[in-house]
Amino acid sequence: MKRKGFEVILMPHNANRIRNITLTSFKLSGILFSLLLAFSSLFFTNLGRIWVENLELQRLRNEKVELKERVKEFVSKTEELEKQMIRLEELEDSLKRLAGLPKDFKLMGKGGPEVALPPISAKSLDKTLDNLRKKASLQISRFYEIKKEIEKKGRYLSLIPCIWPVDGEISSFFGPRISPFTKRMAFHKGLDIVAPIGTPIKATASGKISYTGWKEYYGLNIIINHGNRYKTVYGHLSKIKVKKGGKVKRGDVIGLLGNTGRSTGPHLHYEFRVNNRCVDPLKWMSH
User: Fold this and answer.
1) With a threshold of 0.70, does the pTM exceed it?
2) Assigned domain for 83 exists
3) What is the dihedral of CA 89, 92, 96, 97, to 10 degrees?
4) Which of 83, 90, 166, 216 has CA 20 to 30 A from 285's CA?
5) Helix, strand, or coil (residue 105)
6) Distance between CA 174 and CA 188 in Å, rounded?
């Protein structure tokens, strides 16, 4: 019985011999199966490669989106840090003004040897920015506390009579003296400072005007209550330039020097009282 199949005739170039190959259905099926298997293998290999590439592409896209978010977060943190640094600089300038320091004075000096650091990762940079932001916030809080304390002490110091009430020469000191009126020993309760009539008289500390008027021994005079149990008295004035109940700051002009009341010549009688007891003003005055 003759088997069914296909006959393939091979005719090589420049050859006299012709070869006949008979392909049975079984052999043909095997060849087709092999070709199909090879094609399927190639197809699925390419499909797998495409799938892997798509996964990698998606991963890169996700990383890109994540990177954009990280960059956005870094920019936000950097801007916040810059604002905090500006606030620190403003606070530093404020502290310099309160402390009477020059503008070019550096509160926080920098210097010394350095060692280069290796490049840092995004995660490390993120952590560094967070640490810097926290340190800046803490430093700002500390600066505010220092500023409050300086302002508090500044307000307290502004209430202490420590400047000269008038430019002039002392003609009579605080304490025992020979009275120019009785020629006997007497206790002088303040300082007598000689200057021309009309010379401006300044408040030696901030406070509230508690009295303005005339008294026999003081003539035209002013009393300032500075709080903290401190009071100052300015006597023998020719003119009063403030009103009772008004507030004054250290250095404000409150009147003009004169020769009113019990006086032998133009001068200012200046007293400093603590708990209504006279003390030597000169010990408190800047020289």
Assistant:
1) no
2) no
3) 70
4) 216
5) coil
6) 5
Residue 51 within a domain? yes
Q: For position 181, which CATH number holds?
A: 2.70.70.10
Report long-range pairs for 133-140 (Cβ below 8 Å, ≥24 apart).
Answer: 133/77, 133/80, 133/81, 133/84, 136/81, 136/84, 136/85, 136/88, 137/84, 139/88, 140/84, 140/87, 140/88, 140/91
Q: Out of 67, 86, 115, pick the residue that ends a domain.
A: 67
Q: Answer for the pair 150, 95: CB distance below 8 angstroms, yes or no.
A: yes
Q: What is the pLDDT of residues 263-286, one digit of tens each?
A: 999 999 999 999 999 999 998 886
Q: How far apart are CA 270 and CA 232, in angstroms?
A: 7
Written as six digits, the tokens of 215 are 């008294």
Helix ranges (DSSP H) in the chain: 25-99, 122-158
SS3 content of the chain, % helix, strand, coil (to 5): 40, 30, 30
Of 48, 67, 86, the position where a domain reaches its end is 67
Q: Cα separation of 91 and 144, whole Å? A: 8
C-alpha 57/C-alpha 150 separation (Å) is: 61
Q: Which domain holds residue 61?
A: 5-67
Measured CA to CA, the distance from residue 153 to residue 151 in angstroms comes to: 5
> Beta-carbon neighbour count of residue 8 at 10 Å?
10
Task: Report the alpha-carbon distance of residue 246 to residue 208 in Å, rounded.
Answer: 6
Q: Residue 199 is encoded by which pair of tokens?
A: 């010379």
Nearest to 88 by CA among 154, 167, 164, 143: 143
Instruction: Report yes or no on 40 lying in a domain.
Output: yes
Rounded Cα–Cα distance for residues 221 and 236 (Å): 6
What is the C-alpha separation between 81 and 127, in angstroms, rounded?
Answer: 13
